[in-house]
Write a structure and sequence with these properties.
This protein has about 350 residues and is of the alpha/beta class. The protein folds into two domains: about 180 residues, D-Maltodextrin-Binding Protein, domain 2 (3-Layer(aba) Sandwich), CATH 3.40.190.10; about 100 residues, D-Maltodextrin-Binding Protein, domain 2. It is about 55% helix and about 15% strand. The protein contains 16 helices and ten strands. The protein has a five-stranded mixed beta sheet. It has a three-stranded antiparallel beta sheet with strand order 3-10-4. The longest helix has about 40 residues. The protein is globular, with a radius of gyration of 32 Å. The N and C termini lie far apart (about 95 Å).
Length: about 350
């Protein structure tokens, strides 16, 4: 019988070398594999946790914009558009203007008159249509007031003060009709909530106020004596004019063009949701301050009527015409040094650089 052959010294040495190499590879591979795995995990986390594009919006807690931002959050529209919308709640529109000027907000809602004035003074702000609802002259249900001539000799309350754009347009058209409202009617100014109370108490013959206060008064039995959209058309507008809009810095928009376009798309979706959903209005009722269904339906109808549907270029053309009217009657106190609306005032996502 042959006994088992013992491995030669050379073979043993070779095996030992292979084992040492294998162990060395294992020692190197294990941390390398762990490093690769960790790197892959980190890359995956970075991809999923990549910061969404941030937009800081200054909004009044009780304003229409706040309702729409609520809809955007509730329906996850911001996440779907990869946006991080940060809302700074403010007490007044003036505070919003300060926030935009100071750089603590990227976007606010205001009128193109203010944007035009700021541009004339050197700022490079731009404007994108938000709503065409600006209000009406509200009167009691049994009032005979149905036109400008009917305001002669009447007590007219005006919300927003002497430079309110609706009041200036009302005066401009009255002058064309041969009527000086300042001289031939009794004018009182006041804050919208106070004037609403006085309107319900019948202290004034008519009240020119903002659209949401008009909706509230409609729900309590008053009617529209003079609609401001009709006045705009008489002054030369070809359609409903969005005097209120999003205002933001042109330089910021140029650097964040995609984010701006996505936000405007998301905002349009929120408007359509609000326009078509009674349930959403009921959910927002505590924020709006209206509890009865009839009142909410008036709000929904008037809100929906104000959603801009026209091309930006059409809005701009009507704004140019109305600006001349307002600059003529309001003067430098209203518009600053610019007598014409700068053609770069309106922002068009399809053409703006």
């Amino acid at each position: 019988m042959f006994g088992r052959a013992e491995p030669s010294p050379q073979t043993q040495s070779s095996r030992s070398s292979h084992q040492m190499l294998r162990r060395a590879r294992e020692r190197l591979t294990r941390p390398l594999s762990a490093l690769c795995a960790a790197l892959l995990v980190s890359l995956n986390i970075a991809a999923t946790a990549r910061a969404a594009d941030r937009i800081r919006i200054a909004a009044q807690k009780t304003g229409t914009l706040a309702w729409e931002l609520d809809i955007i959050k509730a329906h996850g529209l911001d996440r779907q558009a990869d946006l991080d919308i940060q809302v700074v709640e403010l007490a007044s529109t003036e505070a919003g203007k300060i926030a935009l000027r100071s750089g603590s907000a990227d976007l606010i809602v205001t009128d193109w008159l203010w944007v035009a004035r700021e541009r004339a003074l050197g700022d490079k702000l731009v404007f994108y249509p938000y709503t065409s609802q600006i209000g009406a002259v509200m009167v009691p249900a049994n009032s005979p007031i149905a036109g400008l001539a009917d305001l002669k000799g009447k007590k007219l309350a005006v919300a927003g003060g002497p430079l309110d754009k609706s009041w200036l347009m009302l005066q401009a058209q009255a002058r064309r009709d041969g009527l000086d409202l300042k001289a031939q009617a009794s004018i009182v100014y006041g804050a919208p909530p106070l004037l609403s109370q006085k309107a319900l108490q019948r202290e004034n013959d008519a009240t020119l106020t903002f659209w949401n206060f008009c909706a509230e008064l409609e729900g309590k039995g008053l009617k529209r004596g003079i609609d401001m959209e009709a006045i705009e058309r008489r002054l030369g507008a070809s359609g409903p004019v969005a005097m209120l809009g999003y205002a933001f810095d042109a330089g910021w928009a140029a650097k964040n063009r995609s984010a701006v376009a996505r936000f405007l798309n998301v905002a349009a979706k929120a408007k359509d949701i609000l326009a078509g959903s009674e349930d959403e209005w009921r959910r927002l009722a505590p924020r709006i301050g209206v509890s009865d269904n009839a009142g909410l339906e008036i709000y929904r109808r008037r809100y929906s009527e104000g959603i801009p549907r026209r091309p930006v270029r059409d809005e701009e053309q009507d704004a140019i015409g109305l600006y001349r009217v307002l600059a003529d009657i309001g003067g430098a106190e209203l518009v600053g040094p610019a007598k014409e609306l700068d053609k770069g005032t309106f922002y068009d996502p399809e053409t703006s650089d």
